[in-house]
Please model this.
Amino acid sequence: MATLDELMNEVSPARRAKIEERAEEMVREITLAQMREELQISQTELAATLGVKQPAVARMERVDNDPRLSTLKRYVAALGGELSIDVKLPSGKRVAYPL
Model:
């Protein structure tokens, strides 16, 4: 059975880019909703904490949403968490920047 890397090497660069873009979108969508659901907080409850209406939270969690860092920070803070950026340098060193 072929590995994912082997299969990805067989597709065209354009198709590979589309696959990678869609995978990033799926991860972003799952991550926001999963964080909220893990804490057993409804969209309505989170919306009240953020001072917005529930549809605004639903939009934040949509695949096609590309939120600003400030929006992500507010979302995570409303969940009681802290947002940071984790950077992996070419040397392999990782650096975290709290926001």
